[in-house]
Amino acid sequence: MPAPRRTPSPRTILFVVAFGVFVAADDLTVVSTMLRQIIFDLEIPLPDGLDQAAWIVNAYLIAYVVVMPFIGRLSDIWGRRNVYVASLLLFLAGSIWVPLAPDLNSFIIGRVLTALGGGAMVPVAMAVIGDVYPREKRASALGALGAIDTAGWVWGPLYGALLIRFLSWQWQFYLNIPLSLLGIAAAWWALRDLPEPKTRERIDWVGTAVLTISLISLNIALLNSGDVQAAGGFAQLQSNEPTFNTSLLYAIAAITFALFLAIETYLGKQANRLKANAVTRSPRHLVTSSPPPPLIDLTLFRRRNFSPAILINFFIGAILIMAMVNVPLLVNVLEFDVETAALTSGYLLSGMTGAMAIMAWVGGQLTERWSYRPVTLIGLAFCAVGMGLMGWLWLVDTPYLNMASHLVVLGVGFGLVIAPIGTAVINAAPEDQRGVASSLVIVLRLMGMSVGLSGLTAWGLYRFEILRKLIDLPELPLSDPTYQQALANGLTNVTVEVLTETFLVSAGVAVLALLIAFWLKPDLLQSAQQ
Hints:
Blueprint: H1 10-29, H2 35-41, H3 50-78, H4 80-97, H5 104-132, H6 138-166, H7 170-190, H8 205-225, H9 244-276, H10 283-289, H11 306-334, H12 338-370, H13 372-393, H14 400-428, H15 434-468, H16 481-517, H17 524-529
């Protein structure tokens, strides 16, 4: 008699899905240190080709965001194992394509494929954790997943720098091939006993198409509005007044989003009517004549903790991008040598992201003991304090060690918030909607980053134009070295002042998110036990 088949433990499943998430997270950030060499190898002329080169990054980010709602819902309908493995296959196809790309357009196609696969893995992995861990153990598992995801962000730029130093950028994608194959084999084995969807519902293709158009339009418009040149400061920002095309994109995004809400509301009402009449109608009639269920069930936003949690995540994204963009900008203003500025920025940000990775795991442990609200409040308080210290104390002559300590405080706050917010959303969603709920966690954070970047640019340009007129310059010829030095010092001081003002604004956003966190409540089961 054959021995009974051994079922993989939840911890094994967590390790397997976290492996794919780590590889995808590395791929998200690794290009940052490879971009210069990629531009050279693809023979993109600079500065005329700078707009084209930007799509190496932009196309990945847009595809990464757009795929999540659809893939999250698809995993609810088609099964987590199938969708997770299909995501790894897409990632594998992109990794094979990219190093063989002969030109920029072909390269971008490959990067979109890796983005579609990589972007799909994170929400599906979160939903898998919701499936295999009981409610009281999900927070620690999601905290571990968040820590591994953040570790991938940290590792990516360093890994890219090492590859450029000793091999070439193509090796990032060559090495993705065996890693993807290993991930596919492990996922096919480890996820084989996950529960299958109870019904094979149809997909809301109309809603998917309309939401995709809205997200693409909005992200391109926000990227156009938030075009920050990280090689310099606000003194080197180009004028970014909204053009007709950008305004048109915002209009398209608004109209299609309103249409999406109308479609989802209609489909939601039809689904409820169908459930009410299920007793008197045959199953075959229900399948053939009824419309598909909505891509995103809007009643999710009325469920306990769902809306405050994803709104907090939106604000977290906006705060995070302020640090990720402004710290390198400020260092580039203070350092004349580009390589020194890049290394210094990397060291400073690694303090923040390293603290995020560690505290994401700690936040999961604390959430299991204290529930969502206390841990989220503590994390957001750290975010507010960290940004406040950066806003008040960062000056032209502030030591880098002091800056690093403030960024660690900020990273502690970011890390603590990851687990309680993700757990609150997944626990709020019904079993058959965990995939789409998990995707909304990531989408709202990324949209917060896009909106934050756009707002940062608009505020920075506005304030820089005002403060630049107040620079006190000596009455000397423009070509005089003394005049030139005074102008350079004045521009440096103004740029630092503008950047630190955005840190103070971010501290205010953290306080706003902290107030929203008071709406988080313990699960009903926890409330009954208390």
